[in-house]
C-alpha cells in the first residue's frame, strides 16, 4: 500500500525545480550554440528549444536576450572563480602559479567552451554597455592573478630587482594571446603548446 501511495505522490505532486541549476543549464546551452553557430544565433526562442523549455518558461528565467547574455557571461566568471577556490597550493611556487593561470586558458573541453563563449561576449560588449562591467571584472581578475604570479616568482627567486608592473603586463598579454590564438587556431596553438609556452615564460621569471 505504501509503495502505491508513493508512486501516486511522485506522479501527481509538482516537482521541485532548482531554479539556479536550471539557469546554469540554460547558460551552458548558450555557450554550446555560440561554439556551434555563433552568438548571432543565440535567440531566446532558439535557446529555449535547445534547452527543452517553452517560450513562457524561458521568459520566467530570462525576460529578454540581454539578461540571458549577462547571466551566461557571469557564469563564465563564476566557474573560473570556483576552480581557483578549489585549488590546493601544495607545489612549488612555479607549479602553483602555473596551475592558477591555467584556470583562465582553454586547456580542456570545459575551459575551451567557456573561452569561446567569453570571447564572443567580449566582442558583443563593444556594442552592449550592459556587458562591459562583466568584461572589466574578468580582465581585472586575470591582471590581478598575473601580478600575484610575478610577485610570487620574484620572491621565490630572491630577485628584488624584477620590474613587477612591466612583467605583469607581459604575462597578462601572454595569457590573453594564448587564449585567443588557441580558439582561433586550435591546430597551431594546442593545449600542449599553451602548457609549454607558459612553463617557459614562468621559468624565465623565476631565474
Helix content percent band: over 70%
Instruction: Provide a count of the helices.
Output: 10
- State the order of secondary-structure elements, H for helix, E for strand: HHHHHHHHHH
- Structural category is mainly alpha
In total, the number of domains comes to: 1
CATH architecture: Orthogonal Bundle
What gyration radius follows from the Cα positions, in whole Å?
21 Å
- N-end to C-end Cα span: 74 Å
Strand content: under 5%
CATH superfamily: Tetracycline Repressor, domain 2
Organism: Bacillus glycinifermentans
Protein name: TetR/AcrR family transcriptional regulator
Pfam family, one: TetR_C_6
Keywords: DNA-binding, Repressor, Transcription, Transcription regulation
Structural features, described:
This is TetR/AcrR family transcriptional regulator. Keywords: DNA-binding, Repressor, Transcription, Transcription regulation. Residues 43-62 bind DNA. With 207 residues, the protein is mainly alpha-helical. The protein contains 10 helices and no strands. It has a single domain (2-205), classed as Tetracycline Repressor, domain 2, CATH 1.10.357.10. It has helices at residues 2-12, 19-37, 44-51, 55-61, 65-86, 93-102, 109-125, 132-157, 164-184, 191-205. The radius of gyration is 21 Å and the shape is elongated.
Amino acid at each position: 500500500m505504501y509503495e502505491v501511495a508513493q508512486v501516486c505522490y511522485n506522479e501527481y505532486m509538482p516537482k521541485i525545480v532548482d531554479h539556479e541549476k536550471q539557469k546554469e543549464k540554460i547558460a551552458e546551452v548558450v555557450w554550446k550554440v555560440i561554439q556551434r553557430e555563433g552568438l548571432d544565433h543565440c535567440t531566446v526562442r532558439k535557446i529555449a528549444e535547445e534547452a527543452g523549455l517553452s517560450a513562457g518558461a524561458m521568459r520566467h528565467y530570462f525576460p529578454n536576450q540581454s539578461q540571458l547574455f549577462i547571466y551566461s557571461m557571469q557564469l563564465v566568471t563564476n566557474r573560473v572563480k570556483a576552480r581557483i577556490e578549489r585549488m590546493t597550493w601544495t607545489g612549488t611556487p612555479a607549479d602553483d602559479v602555473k596551475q592558477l593561470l591555467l584556470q583562465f586558458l582553454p586547456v580542456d573541453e570545459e575551459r575551451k567552451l567557456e573561452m569561446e563563449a567569453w570571447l564572443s561576449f567580449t566582442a558583443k560588449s563593444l556594442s552592449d554597455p550592459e556587458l562591459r562591467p562583466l568584461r572589466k571584472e574578468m580582465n581585472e581578475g586575470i591582471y590581478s592573478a598575473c601580478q600575484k604570479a610575478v610577485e610570487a616568482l620574484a620572491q621565490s627567486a630572491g630577485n628584488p630587482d624584477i620590474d613587477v608592473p612591466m612583467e605583469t603586463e607581459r604575462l597578462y598579454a601572454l595569457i590573453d594571446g594564448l587564449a585567443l590564438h588557441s580558439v582561433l587556431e586550435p591546430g597551431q596553438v594546442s593545449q600542449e603548446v599553451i602548457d609549454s609556452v607558459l612553463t617557459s615564460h614562468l621559468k624565465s621569471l623565476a631565474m
